[in-house]
Write a structure and sequence with these properties.
Blueprint (H helix, E strand, L loop, with lengths): L1 E5 L5 H11 L5 E5 L5 H5 L3 E3 L8 H11 L2 E6 L2 H9 L1 H5 L4 E2 L4 H8 L1 H10 L7 E2 L2 H9 L7 E5 L9 E3 L2 H17 L13 E5 L4 E9 L5 E13 L2 E8 L2 H14 L3 E9 L5 E7 L6 H6 L4 H9 L16 E3 L8
Parallel strand pairs: 1-2, 1-4, 2-3, 4-5
Antiparallel strand pairs: 6-9, 7-8, 7-9, 10-11, 10-13, 11-12, 12-15, 13-14
Helix pairs in contact: 4-6, 6-7
Protein backbone atom coordinates (compact mmCIF):
# COMPACT_ATOMS: atom_id res chain seq x y z
CA UNK A 1 0.00 0.00 0.00
CA UNK A 2 1.20 3.49 -0.86
CA UNK A 3 0.12 6.54 1.12
CA UNK A 4 0.17 10.23 0.18
CA UNK A 5 0.23 12.94 2.85
CA UNK A 6 -0.57 16.24 1.13
CA UNK A 7 0.26 19.69 2.55
CA UNK A 8 2.84 17.95 4.73
CA UNK A 9 4.36 21.22 6.00
CA UNK A 10 6.37 20.61 9.19
CA UNK A 11 4.57 17.40 10.16
CA UNK A 12 7.57 15.12 9.71
CA UNK A 13 6.31 12.87 12.50
CA UNK A 14 3.44 11.70 10.26
CA UNK A 15 5.97 10.31 7.78
CA UNK A 16 7.61 8.34 10.60
CA UNK A 17 4.30 7.05 11.99
CA UNK A 18 3.04 5.76 8.64
CA UNK A 19 6.39 4.29 7.58
CA UNK A 20 6.62 2.41 10.88
CA UNK A 21 3.06 1.12 10.47
CA UNK A 22 3.63 0.02 6.87
CA UNK A 23 6.73 -1.88 8.01
CA UNK A 24 8.12 -2.07 4.48
CA UNK A 25 4.84 -3.08 2.83
CA UNK A 26 4.51 0.20 0.92
CA UNK A 27 5.74 3.75 0.53
CA UNK A 28 4.83 7.07 2.13
CA UNK A 29 4.75 10.00 -0.32
CA UNK A 30 4.36 13.65 0.59
CA UNK A 31 3.60 16.81 -1.38
CA UNK A 32 3.44 20.51 -0.63
CA UNK A 33 3.26 23.88 -2.37
CA UNK A 34 6.47 24.90 -0.57
CA UNK A 35 9.36 22.71 -1.74
CA UNK A 36 11.46 23.85 1.24
CA UNK A 37 9.02 22.71 3.93
CA UNK A 38 10.56 20.37 6.48
CA UNK A 39 8.35 17.45 5.50
CA UNK A 40 9.41 17.75 1.85
CA UNK A 41 13.08 17.66 2.81
CA UNK A 42 12.73 14.63 5.06
CA UNK A 43 12.04 12.09 2.32
CA UNK A 44 13.00 11.43 -1.29
CA UNK A 45 9.35 10.44 -1.91
CA UNK A 46 8.27 14.09 -2.16
CA UNK A 47 6.94 16.22 -4.98
CA UNK A 48 5.82 19.78 -5.51
CA UNK A 49 2.18 20.62 -6.14
CA UNK A 50 0.51 24.06 -6.44
CA UNK A 51 -1.71 25.46 -3.70
CA UNK A 52 -5.12 23.83 -3.46
CA UNK A 53 -6.82 26.95 -4.85
CA UNK A 54 -5.05 26.46 -8.17
CA UNK A 55 -7.65 25.65 -10.85
CA UNK A 56 -5.74 22.51 -11.87
CA UNK A 57 -5.10 21.29 -8.33
CA UNK A 58 -7.46 18.31 -8.27
CA UNK A 59 -6.37 17.10 -11.70
CA UNK A 60 -2.68 17.37 -10.74
CA UNK A 61 -3.19 15.69 -7.36
CA UNK A 62 -5.28 12.89 -8.83
CA UNK A 63 -2.81 12.21 -11.66
CA UNK A 64 0.12 12.20 -9.20
CA UNK A 65 -1.79 9.79 -6.93
CA UNK A 66 -2.65 7.39 -9.75
CA UNK A 67 0.94 7.48 -11.05
CA UNK A 68 2.26 6.52 -7.59
CA UNK A 69 -0.45 3.89 -7.00
CA UNK A 70 -1.74 5.70 -3.91
CA UNK A 71 -4.37 3.92 -1.79
CA UNK A 72 -4.74 6.45 1.04
CA UNK A 73 -4.76 10.24 0.63
CA UNK A 74 -4.37 12.29 3.82
CA UNK A 75 -4.82 16.08 3.36
CA UNK A 76 -3.39 18.19 6.18
CA UNK A 77 -4.75 21.65 5.37
CA UNK A 78 -8.30 22.81 6.05
CA UNK A 79 -8.93 24.51 2.68
CA UNK A 80 -7.38 21.56 0.87
CA UNK A 81 -9.56 19.07 2.76
CA UNK A 82 -12.62 21.13 1.76
CA UNK A 83 -11.66 21.04 -1.93
CA UNK A 84 -10.77 17.33 -1.92
CA UNK A 85 -14.03 16.51 -0.14
CA UNK A 86 -15.98 18.22 -2.93
CA UNK A 87 -14.12 15.99 -5.43
CA UNK A 88 -14.08 12.75 -3.42
CA UNK A 89 -15.74 10.74 -6.19
CA UNK A 90 -12.81 11.18 -8.61
CA UNK A 91 -10.42 9.65 -6.10
CA UNK A 92 -12.75 6.83 -5.06
CA UNK A 93 -13.29 5.96 -8.73
CA UNK A 94 -9.52 5.37 -8.91
CA UNK A 95 -9.50 3.21 -5.75
CA UNK A 96 -7.96 5.99 -3.66
CA UNK A 97 -9.48 6.67 -0.24
CA UNK A 98 -9.37 10.40 0.60
CA UNK A 99 -9.50 10.60 4.40
CA UNK A 100 -11.99 13.47 4.61
CA UNK A 101 -15.69 13.58 5.58
CA UNK A 102 -18.48 14.28 3.14
CA UNK A 103 -18.64 17.80 1.67
CA UNK A 104 -21.27 19.13 4.09
CA UNK A 105 -19.37 17.91 7.16
CA UNK A 106 -16.10 19.32 5.85
CA UNK A 107 -17.75 22.70 5.36
CA UNK A 108 -19.17 22.60 8.90
CA UNK A 109 -15.62 22.18 10.17
CA UNK A 110 -14.12 24.96 8.03
CA UNK A 111 -16.94 27.49 8.49
CA UNK A 112 -16.75 28.60 12.14
CA UNK A 113 -20.29 29.97 12.11
CA UNK A 114 -21.63 26.69 10.73
CA UNK A 115 -19.63 24.91 13.45
CA UNK A 116 -21.54 26.93 16.05
CA UNK A 117 -24.89 26.21 14.37
CA UNK A 118 -24.06 22.51 14.11
CA UNK A 119 -23.06 22.20 17.78
CA UNK A 120 -26.14 24.10 18.88
CA UNK A 121 -28.39 21.88 16.73
CA UNK A 122 -27.09 18.64 18.27
CA UNK A 123 -27.21 20.04 21.81
CA UNK A 124 -23.48 20.49 22.38
CA UNK A 125 -22.25 23.37 24.58
CA UNK A 126 -20.55 26.09 22.53
CA UNK A 127 -19.78 29.80 22.78
CA UNK A 128 -22.33 32.33 21.51
CA UNK A 129 -21.31 33.30 17.98
CA UNK A 130 -22.57 36.12 15.75
CA UNK A 131 -22.25 36.73 12.03
CA UNK A 132 -22.41 40.53 12.19
CA UNK A 133 -22.27 43.46 14.59
CA UNK A 134 -26.03 44.09 14.39
CA UNK A 135 -26.98 40.67 15.79
CA UNK A 136 -24.31 40.98 18.48
CA UNK A 137 -25.56 44.43 19.55
CA UNK A 138 -29.08 43.07 19.89
CA UNK A 139 -27.95 40.48 22.44
CA UNK A 140 -25.64 43.00 24.10
CA UNK A 141 -28.59 45.35 24.63
CA UNK A 142 -30.62 42.49 26.12
CA UNK A 143 -27.67 41.54 28.38
CA UNK A 144 -27.37 38.08 26.81
CA UNK A 145 -23.69 38.67 26.08
CA UNK A 146 -21.02 41.04 27.36
CA UNK A 147 -17.48 42.21 26.71
CA UNK A 148 -14.81 40.97 26.33
CA UNK A 149 -15.42 39.12 23.08
CA UNK A 150 -13.33 37.61 20.29
CA UNK A 151 -13.45 38.53 16.62
CA UNK A 152 -11.80 36.30 14.02
CA UNK A 153 -12.13 35.14 10.40
CA UNK A 154 -15.13 32.91 9.75
CA UNK A 155 -12.99 30.62 7.58
CA UNK A 156 -9.76 30.97 9.55
CA UNK A 157 -7.28 28.42 10.83
CA UNK A 158 -4.13 28.23 12.97
CA UNK A 159 -5.53 30.98 15.27
CA UNK A 160 -4.67 33.66 12.69
CA UNK A 161 -6.08 37.19 13.03
CA UNK A 162 -7.93 36.55 16.31
CA UNK A 163 -8.49 39.65 18.46
CA UNK A 164 -9.78 40.05 22.00
CA UNK A 165 -12.11 43.06 22.17
CA UNK A 166 -12.91 44.99 25.35
CA UNK A 167 -15.37 47.68 24.23
CA UNK A 168 -17.84 48.74 21.52
CA UNK A 169 -15.47 51.40 20.18
CA UNK A 170 -12.69 48.81 19.95
CA UNK A 171 -15.06 46.38 18.21
CA UNK A 172 -16.00 48.84 15.46
CA UNK A 173 -12.37 49.78 14.74
CA UNK A 174 -11.04 46.21 14.90
CA UNK A 175 -13.90 44.82 12.82
CA UNK A 176 -13.18 47.28 10.01
CA UNK A 177 -9.46 46.43 10.17
CA UNK A 178 -10.11 42.67 10.10
CA UNK A 179 -12.58 43.08 7.26
CA UNK A 180 -9.82 44.55 5.08
CA UNK A 181 -7.68 41.46 5.82
CA UNK A 182 -10.35 38.82 5.18
CA UNK A 183 -11.59 40.42 1.97
CA UNK A 184 -8.10 39.98 0.53
CA UNK A 185 -7.85 36.31 1.46
CA UNK A 186 -8.26 33.66 -1.23
CA UNK A 187 -11.15 31.28 -0.65
CA UNK A 188 -12.71 28.50 -2.72
CA UNK A 189 -16.23 28.66 -4.07
CA UNK A 190 -18.78 28.91 -2.47
CA UNK A 191 -17.03 30.39 0.57
CA UNK A 192 -15.73 33.45 -1.30
CA UNK A 193 -19.31 34.48 -2.16
CA UNK A 194 -20.40 34.66 1.50
CA UNK A 195 -21.30 38.22 2.53
CA UNK A 196 -20.10 37.91 6.14
CA UNK A 197 -16.54 36.60 6.59
CA UNK A 198 -15.98 37.58 10.24
CA UNK A 199 -17.49 36.09 13.38
CA UNK A 200 -17.96 37.67 16.79
CA UNK A 201 -17.69 35.14 19.60
CA UNK A 202 -18.22 35.11 23.33
CA UNK A 203 -14.90 35.19 25.23
CA UNK A 204 -14.35 32.68 28.00
CA UNK A 205 -11.52 32.25 30.48
CA UNK A 206 -10.66 28.65 31.19
CA UNK A 207 -8.33 25.71 30.63
CA UNK A 208 -7.87 24.58 27.03
CA UNK A 209 -8.00 20.97 25.90
CA UNK A 210 -7.67 19.05 22.67
CA UNK A 211 -9.18 15.74 21.65
CA UNK A 212 -8.79 13.22 18.87
CA UNK A 213 -12.20 11.71 18.05
CA UNK A 214 -11.58 8.64 15.92
CA UNK A 215 -14.02 6.95 13.57
CA UNK A 216 -13.32 3.95 11.36
CA UNK A 217 -13.65 4.16 7.58
CA UNK A 218 -17.37 3.42 7.83
CA UNK A 219 -17.85 6.49 9.99
CA UNK A 220 -18.37 4.40 13.14
CA UNK A 221 -17.14 5.80 16.48
CA UNK A 222 -14.01 4.07 17.80
CA UNK A 223 -12.75 6.29 20.63
CA UNK A 224 -11.80 9.69 21.97
CA UNK A 225 -8.41 10.67 23.39
CA UNK A 226 -8.02 13.88 25.37
CA UNK A 227 -5.06 16.11 26.21
CA UNK A 228 -4.80 19.12 28.51
CA UNK A 229 -2.87 21.89 26.73
CA UNK A 230 0.05 23.20 28.75
CA UNK A 231 1.80 25.36 26.15
CA UNK A 232 0.74 26.69 22.72
CA UNK A 233 2.58 28.32 19.80
CA UNK A 234 0.77 29.93 16.86
CA UNK A 235 -2.37 27.94 17.61
CA UNK A 236 -0.61 24.57 17.82
CA UNK A 237 -0.06 22.60 21.02
CA UNK A 238 3.59 22.38 22.11
CA UNK A 239 3.26 20.66 25.51
CA UNK A 240 0.31 18.56 26.68
CA UNK A 241 -0.77 16.05 29.31
CA UNK A 242 -2.86 12.99 28.46
CA UNK A 243 -6.00 12.77 30.60
CA UNK A 244 -9.41 11.17 30.95
CA UNK A 245 -12.60 13.26 31.02
CA UNK A 246 -15.86 11.23 31.05
CA UNK A 247 -18.02 14.32 30.35
CA UNK A 248 -16.30 15.05 27.06
CA UNK A 249 -16.21 11.34 26.16
CA UNK A 250 -20.02 11.52 26.14
CA UNK A 251 -19.99 14.62 23.94
CA UNK A 252 -17.49 13.02 21.56
CA UNK A 253 -19.89 10.23 20.61
CA UNK A 254 -22.61 12.72 19.73
CA UNK A 255 -20.19 14.74 17.58
CA UNK A 256 -18.92 11.59 15.87
CA UNK A 257 -22.40 10.30 15.10
CA UNK A 258 -23.45 13.62 13.54
CA UNK A 259 -20.33 14.82 11.70
CA UNK A 260 -19.81 11.27 10.44
CA UNK A 261 -16.10 11.73 9.67
CA UNK A 262 -13.55 9.04 8.91
CA UNK A 263 -10.18 8.82 10.62
CA UNK A 264 -9.38 11.66 13.00
CA UNK A 265 -11.45 14.67 14.02
CA UNK A 266 -9.25 17.14 15.90
CA UNK A 267 -11.37 19.03 18.45
CA UNK A 268 -10.54 22.01 20.67
CA UNK A 269 -12.58 22.80 23.77
CA UNK A 270 -12.36 24.85 26.94
CA UNK A 271 -13.30 24.07 30.53
CA UNK A 272 -14.61 27.03 32.56
CA UNK A 273 -14.27 27.62 36.30
CA UNK A 274 -17.50 25.70 37.02
CA UNK A 275 -16.31 22.59 35.16
CA UNK A 276 -18.53 23.17 32.10
CA UNK A 277 -17.17 22.18 28.70
CA UNK A 278 -17.50 24.52 25.70
CA UNK A 279 -16.52 23.20 22.27
CA UNK A 280 -14.53 25.60 20.07
CA UNK A 281 -13.30 24.02 16.82
CA UNK A 282 -13.61 20.88 14.70
CA UNK A 283 -10.85 19.94 12.22
CA UNK A 284 -11.22 16.80 10.03
CA UNK A 285 -7.55 15.81 9.93
CA UNK A 286 -4.53 15.06 12.08
CA UNK A 287 -4.23 18.05 14.37
CA UNK A 288 -1.17 19.45 16.10
CA UNK A 289 -2.11 17.47 19.21
CA UNK A 290 -2.07 14.03 17.57
CA UNK A 291 1.65 13.32 18.29
CA UNK A 292 0.82 13.34 22.01
CA UNK A 293 -1.97 10.81 21.47
CA UNK A 294 0.29 8.65 19.32
CA UNK A 295 3.20 8.65 21.75
CA UNK A 296 0.84 7.74 24.57
CA UNK A 297 -0.05 4.48 22.80
CA UNK A 298 -2.76 5.19 20.19
CA UNK A 299 -1.61 4.07 16.72
CA UNK A 300 -4.13 5.57 14.30
CA UNK A 301 -1.89 5.22 11.19
CA UNK A 302 -1.74 1.46 11.76
CA UNK A 303 -5.52 1.30 12.14
CA UNK A 304 -6.03 3.37 8.97
CA UNK A 305 -3.88 0.99 6.96
CA UNK A 306 -5.83 -2.01 8.25
CA UNK A 307 -9.20 -0.33 7.60
CA UNK A 308 -8.14 0.50 4.04
CA UNK A 309 -7.36 -3.19 3.55
CA UNK A 310 -10.67 -4.23 5.17
CA UNK A 311 -8.80 -5.93 8.00
CA UNK A 312 -9.72 -5.79 11.71
CA UNK A 313 -7.54 -3.83 14.11
CA UNK A 314 -6.67 -4.71 17.69
CA UNK A 315 -8.19 -2.59 20.46
CA UNK A 316 -4.73 -2.74 22.09
CA UNK A 317 -3.58 -0.22 19.47
CA UNK A 318 -6.12 2.25 20.87
CA UNK A 319 -5.15 2.32 24.55
CA UNK A 320 -3.77 5.66 25.66
CA UNK A 321 -1.56 5.94 28.71
CA UNK A 322 -3.05 8.64 30.94
CA UNK A 323 -0.99 11.08 33.01
CA UNK A 324 1.87 11.55 30.54
CA UNK A 325 3.26 15.04 29.93
CA UNK A 326 4.77 15.27 26.45
CA UNK A 327 6.41 18.05 24.44
CA UNK A 328 7.39 18.58 20.80
CA UNK A 329 10.87 19.24 19.51
CA UNK A 330 12.20 20.47 16.17
CA UNK A 331 14.60 19.01 13.62
CA UNK A 332 17.09 20.79 11.40
CA UNK A 333 16.95 19.86 7.70
CA UNK A 334 19.66 20.41 5.10
CA UNK A 335 18.45 21.90 1.81
Amino acid sequence: MNILISSIGRRTYLIDYFEESLAGSGNVYVCNSDKYSTGMLKTNNSFFIPESLNENYIELLLNASVEREISLLLPQHDIEAFIISRNRKYFLDNKIIPVVPNFNSTRICLDKYMTYQFLKKIGMPSLKTYLNIKSFLKDLKNELVSFPIIIKPRFGFASRHCFKIESLDELVKSYDFLDIIVQKEKLPFPLKSEKFKIIIQQYLEGKEYGADIINDFNGKYVGCFIKKKIAMRYGETEIAETIEMPLFQKYSKAISNNIYHIGNLDVDFILDSTGQVFILDLNPRFGGGYPFTHNAGVNLPKAMILWAENKPFSSNDFKMEVGLTLSKSYIISKH
